[in-house]
Amino acid sequence: MKRFVYINDESYQNDYCDNQISNTKYTLWNFLPKNLWEQFRRFMNQYFLLIACLQLWSLITPVNPASTWGPLIIIFAVSATKEAWDDYNRYISDKQANEKKVWIVKNGARKHIQAQDIRVGNIVWIRENEEVPCDLVLTGTSEPQGICHVETAALDGEIDLKTRVIPPTCAGLDAEQLHKIKGVIECPIPDKDIRRFDANIRLFPPFIDNDICPLTINNTLLQSCYLRNTEWACGVAVYTGNETKLGMSRGVPEPKLTAMDAMIDKLTGAIFLFQLAVVVVLGSAGNVWKDTEARKQWYVKYDDDEPWYQILVIPLRFELLCSIMIPISIKVSLDFVKSLYAKFIDWDEEMYDKETDTPAHAANTAISEDLGQVEYILTDKTGTLTENKMIFRRCCIGGTLYGNESGDALKDVELLNAVANNSPHVIKFLTVMALCNTVIPIKSPSGQISYKAQSQDEDALVNAASNLHMVLVSKNGNNAEIHFNRRVVQYEILDVLEFTSDRKRMSVLISDSESGKIFLLSKGADEAILPLAYSGQQIKTFIDAVDKYAQLGLRTLCLAWRELGLQEYLEWSRLFKEANSALIDREWKVAEVCQKLEHTLDILGISAIEDRLQAGVPETIEILRQSGINFWMLTGDKQSTAIQIALLCNLISSEPKGQLLYINGKTEDEVARSLERVLLTMRITSSEPKELAFVVDGWALEIILTRYKEAFTELAVLSKTAICCRVTPSQKAQLVKLLKSCDYRTLAIGDGGNDVRMIQQAHIGVGISGREGLQAARAADYSIGKFRFLKRLILVHGRYSYNRTAFLSQYSFYKSLLICFIQILFSFVSGIAGTSLFNSVSLMAYNVFYTSIPVLTTVLDKDLSERTVTQNPEILLYCQAGRLLNPSTFAGWFGRSLYHAIVVFLITIHVYANEKSEMEELSMVALSGSIWLQAFVVTLEMNSFTFVQFLGIWGNFAAFYIINFGISSIPSAGMYTIMFRLCRQPSYWITMLLISGVGMGPVLALKYFRYTYSPSAINILQKAERSRGPMYTLVHL
Amino acid sequence: MDSSNAAGTSNGGSGDGDPAAAARRNTKMPKYSKFTQQELPACKPILTPKWVVSVFFLVGVIFVPVGVVSLLAARDVVEIIDRYDDACVPVNMTDNKLGYIQNETISKECTRTLTVTKDMKQPIFVYYQLDNFYQNHRRYVKSRNDAQLRDYKKANQTTSCEPERTTADGKPIVPCGLIAWSLFNDTYIFNRGNENLTVDKKDISWKSDREHKFAKNVYPSNFQNGGLIGGAKLDSSIPLSDQEDLIVWMRTAALPTFRKLYGRIYVDLKENDTITVKLDNNYNTYSFGGKKKLVLSTATWLGGKNDFLGFAYLIVGGLCIFLAFAFTLLYVIKPRKLGDHNYLSWNRHPAGR
């Protein structure tokens, strides 16, 4: 499918959408139904709605329907309001963008219109620092060379300025002509690839001959970019509105579910089944009792002939009575604490990177607990472990190694001498360094030259060349000027054979303006360049140099050149142009054509660039490995460099402590044998305390992932450490997927665009807002400034979040079960007829206020100080293995709620027996008993008390009495005067003390016993921590 | 502020001076507060043996005396209970108790003799006790309409009163519902020798009920007019607020065994006094095997004769003291050094994790 855009042609009507941007999810009309529909897709909400509807049937409802409808409506209103507010803000920003005034050309004259009225085919004018309103094909700029600069930060997060050029066919048109330009652009249908635009343009006479001119992404101005350093630019709108590259790439990422959420869902399901069982058992018991006993109780006056549905009435009543087993408040509580966890990450001063002025940020507020349960970290190397600040360190030119003594070739006297003596090898080498790149030199008014480079390696090479007196002074269009030893050399850049990750090399075709000779300058990875050497060249020294540099952890690039004949160039140039204007498979076709030129190269030498480790990386990895997290390093770099970096940052240990197992081979058989061997070694040595790691490269990995996935999965389970080199972005994502399929919690961390897929695939994606732009950080759930913050993110934030949620969620079930068990127990003394002991107001307030507020203060709870955790990272195991929230801990809470319900109920009915057994009083005594118990339970389970906790627990306790005094003074309320009456009775207070004592005594004794005689590691550390310091937090010590 | 600097420099390294603080305002550095850094001063108690033992000991020390006092209070109460439902059935009717109670022609009068076991100080509370009577049954407890009782204009509001809403011809019943319909209707007259012991039936209901729940201007109407008579009839010339037996009855009991206040006797009774009770045994508990008891009781600050609290306190207090001793003993025999890192499992097995 193709799209034909007729430039500036009023007569040609197209039905492409206008430029109205809409990011909103709802409209005013569909908000309510659509939002409700979305909310009711959740099982919990469906369940509560069903319960609420059943309650409308007054025959079966034990309580006022308001006790469920109230909270349900509140919960729905809260999430709906949040959605509406977000959507409104989106609407406002859309409106602003849509109503912005832009200049377009209409009937040969410029016109000021709103951005939303731009149509495909219009010519749009943009001035400096203006935002591009839609996707344009550049047709003219103010610069004579036909270039303009754009900032694409909003699109891909990259902060450097990019150069955009007008297609050659439009070159040289002045503003007057641009108004009248006519033509057709043939382009693909809208897609979301912001790096590709395979189109072509043909202008109609009289502007130029009827020649098709290819267009690439470099000829476009994409929506949301800003025009910089250019007075004006104009272009033809090709994609508008939501069909722009930006609009198309906007998608709603799938919500991630944490392991804890899954566990809570599972437990909810179990409770639901339990509830059904209770309903069936009690429902049938109730029906039996009704037929045998209740019919004799004349005062109940059961009819003898009842409608058929009467048999359902009692079970349904129990269903409603037990519906509170699943706490309606849990979702709201969890959402609240989760957003606070995220805020704590945003607020954390210790994760603020001073150097780049970036605080940590949690873009996904829902998955903090997963941080504490990470088992595998898959990390990128460049820019993640290293600084991505490239420094030219050594080189090997024509067989001579420079920079060996000082470790800095730029200070090597030999090299400086060679430069001064115009050694031909060195000059060629430096020329390639200075020219074989896409760097833009920018001259400041003071004459200082600075370079804008998209790749850090190119930046390092150009800077190093200029330090060695080969200065790239300017690049004006196709002309490059170089100063070498005060000599000015002019070159014409004929073509750029761009770098792709498949080719792993780039080349530039230049012609010397003086001699007219044409040269091909190439640079790239050693394995991409060395095989292309002309036959007969001795490349052994280069291979040795590459090995040597790689062992030092340096990044190597191989530089080469070749002289071309004019005829050869012209022939090739035609092919190249053809390939470049292809609409289908352009990248592949171009690569093929490039290959035709890149051969019989003269290898000039090897450059070695250092990429230093970020501060704190080895320590961070050491601690995280101690805490039981396995590390896999996935890098596009070569094997030896990767291993070297891995050694430097504690990822692997050197012999004899550690051992590396290599999986390699070129053919399937070789790879299979190698994999089998490694797997065998792994199995044998898995019991030994030896650190094994396997190393695999992208080629072998591709074979393995397609053919031997099962064996590899076994290997992945056995191996704590792995190094995967030369892997592509999609392989990174595949590896994450593989680990996920083994039920491991994975965290992917990276900094560049090539890590985005892996970051999105992993359970948790962490982006480092580094030098390669913000692309990774934007796609990630968490973004941090430096790798070392990962330690704090996992050990402190992840661990605390896990602990807190574990308590909060189980407690929520505990308190709901408690009140529900009391109701069930009461049904045994009320003729199993489904009478509710508690009134509607109490039931609702119990769930919504009395018991949910104190436990929310758990967001400030810390079982261990941050220092203790970092000193004993092994403690993370408790979170990783999910020891604080699993069916058995949950069973403990379940048992506790059953025990407490029995205590409350039995004590209440024995004290408030006979003449005291008035319904309202007894119900309030039981409720107070539950409130007392829950206050003590929260107190006992909380590990640290700030004033917030004190206020939450005991303030809530006081609030319970105040609220009930309030209700007790309303004459029309059912419980009028009850609370006053009770509080005057000594027996009430004595009962409360008894309930607390009996309820908490065994819990305390059991907890103490376990704490002292079979303590968990957490308990031991708690004791160690407290015995060394005073009773308050140790953070400042 | 000290701590703020400490936190700030811990990773930055350079000493923060005032210029740095000023520069901070222009950065994206998170603003420091003890809350945002999760550094609020906190007290972190742990379960040390000393602490736990003292808590148990303290609870025991408090509970035992409270138990003793409660038990003494309960023992102070003198209580006479007389079950009369079986005894009042004529000998020839014991096989057909239901027939007896449902036959209106048979006189329900019955005389019981009670002996005072101990001196009883006035006021003496007279209760009737019903066993196996489910005032808390779902169908029963909901069968009332409070609005109707509170406001004479709302006499027609009989929703939720099923199945005693209206008479056969559709007139609203006041008070409607099963609770009122099944009002207890046994009556008692007490004599000591020849002296009549007056039972004061004033103020037996809650004052708040008389003033706010049962209005002075609402009179019973169409009550117990239907074919099936439940319990007592009401005098339709007396406003509901003065129908204290009804008010007491309508304070439903939460348990199937309950006592309701019948009246008070303001006379001291001596040990071995004989009291004859002339009662009308009208109320049907025979159909479901319920018991009826007449209770005379004094009261203390803790209420009636109920040993439960006293015993419970004594047992719990005793257990607490026992636990305190047991924990102390255990600790002396098998001490554990607090927070010994050697107990950490990963220190014991450095290899296995």
UniProtKB/TrEMBL annotation, chain A:
<dbReference type="InterPro" id="IPR008250">
    <property type="entry name" value="ATPase_P-typ_transduc_dom_A_sf"/>
</dbReference>
<dbReference type="InterPro" id="IPR023298">
    <property type="entry name" value="ATPase_P-typ_TM_dom_sf"/>
</dbReference>
<dbReference type="InterPro" id="IPR036412">
    <property type="entry name" value="HAD-like_sf"/>
</dbReference>
<dbReference type="InterPro" id="IPR032630">
    <property type="entry name" value="P_typ_ATPase_c"/>
</dbReference>
<feature type="binding site">
    <location>
        <position position="726"/>
    </location>
    <ligand>
        <name>ATP</name>
    </ligand>
</feature>
<feature type="domain" description="P-type ATPase C-terminal">
    <location>
        <begin position="777"/>
        <end position="1016"/>
    </location>
</feature>
<dbReference type="InterPro" id="IPR023214">
    <property type="entry name" value="HAD_sf"/>
</dbReference>
<dbReference type="GO" id="GO:0000287">
    <property type="term" value="F:magnesium ion binding"/>
</dbReference>
<keyword id="KW-0460">Magnesium</keyword>
<feature type="domain" description="P-type ATPase N-terminal">
    <location>
        <begin position="5"/>
        <end position="69"/>
    </location>
</feature>
<dbReference type="InterPro" id="IPR032631">
    <property type="entry name" value="P-type_ATPase_N"/>
</dbReference>
<dbReference type="Pfam" id="PF08282">
    <property type="entry name" value="Hydrolase_3"/>
</dbReference>
<feature type="binding site">
    <location>
        <position position="635"/>
    </location>
    <ligand>
        <name>ATP</name>
    </ligand>
</feature>
<feature type="binding site">
    <location>
        <position position="555"/>
    </location>
    <ligand>
        <name>ATP</name>
    </ligand>
</feature>
<dbReference type="InterPro" id="IPR044492">
    <property type="entry name" value="P_typ_ATPase_HD_dom"/>
</dbReference>
<dbReference type="GO" id="GO:0015914">
    <property type="term" value="P:phospholipid transport"/>
</dbReference>
<feature type="binding site">
    <location>
        <position position="636"/>
    </location>
    <ligand>
        <name>ATP</name>
    </ligand>
</feature>
<feature type="binding site">
    <location>
        <position position="382"/>
    </location>
    <ligand>
        <name>Mg(2+)</name>
    </ligand>
</feature>
<dbReference type="InterPro" id="IPR001757">
    <property type="entry name" value="P_typ_ATPase"/>
</dbReference>
<protein>
    <recommendedName>
        <fullName>Phospholipid-transporting ATPase</fullName>
        <ecNumber>7.6.2.1</ecNumber>
    </recommendedName>
</protein>
<dbReference type="InterPro" id="IPR006539">
    <property type="entry name" value="P-type_ATPase_IV"/>
</dbReference>
<dbReference type="GO" id="GO:0005524">
    <property type="term" value="F:ATP binding"/>
</dbReference>
TrEMBL record, chain B:
<dbReference type="Pfam" id="PF03381">
    <property type="entry name" value="CDC50"/>
</dbReference>
<feature type="region of interest" description="Disordered">
    <location>
        <begin position="1"/>
        <end position="23"/>
    </location>
</feature>
<dbReference type="GO" id="GO:0005783">
    <property type="term" value="C:endoplasmic reticulum"/>
</dbReference>
<dbReference type="GO" id="GO:0005794">
    <property type="term" value="C:Golgi apparatus"/>
</dbReference>
<keyword id="KW-0812">Transmembrane</keyword>
<feature type="transmembrane region" description="Helical">
    <location>
        <begin position="51"/>
        <end position="74"/>
    </location>
</feature>
<keyword id="KW-1133">Transmembrane helix</keyword>
<comment type="similarity">
    <text>Belongs to the CDC50/LEM3 family.</text>
</comment>
<protein>
    <recommendedName>
        <fullName>ALA-interacting subunit</fullName>
    </recommendedName>
</protein>
<dbReference type="InterPro" id="IPR005045">
    <property type="entry name" value="CDC50/LEM3_fam"/>
</dbReference>
<keyword id="KW-0472">Membrane</keyword>
<dbReference type="GO" id="GO:0005886">
    <property type="term" value="C:plasma membrane"/>
</dbReference>
<feature type="transmembrane region" description="Helical">
    <location>
        <begin position="311"/>
        <end position="333"/>
    </location>
</feature>
